[in-house]
Amino acid sequence: ENLDFALPYACVSVLLDGAGLPFFHVVQGCPLEEVRMGMRVQARWVADEKLGPTIASIECFVPTGEPDADYETYKEHS
Q1: What is the C-alpha separation between 66 and 36, in angstroms, rounded?
Q2: What is the DSSP string of the chain?
């Protein structure tokens, strides 16, 4: 399936809380100059009829507005 992302978007490494391995995905919903390491994001899911047990179920990530993660929680991945 061809994915089209509305501008602006950033390609980032996402490290889920408690995970040991980051994965590559897209962040939308904020100006590019605000994207930063430690920024808290949440998944925006695809429509219910497209949901499945794969990463393709995540349309993109968007900022939560929560305080940034502590550097110590992701420093091994920076």
Answers
A1: 13
A2: -----PSS-EEEEE--TT-SS-EEEEE-SS-GGG--TT--EEEEEPPGGG--SSGGGEEEEEE--PPPPPGGGTGGG-
The answer, yes or no, to whether residue 3 has pLDDT greater than 80, is no
Per-residue pLDDT at 2 exceeds 80 = no
Residue among 59, 66, 55, 68 at smallest CA distance from 21: 55
Q: Give me the residue label for tokens 């949901």.
A: 51
Can you tell me the distance from the alpha carbon of 66 to that of 52, in angstroms, rounded to the nearest whole number? 28
Query: Could you tell me which of 68, 3, 7, 58 has the C-alpha nearest to residue 32?
Result: 7
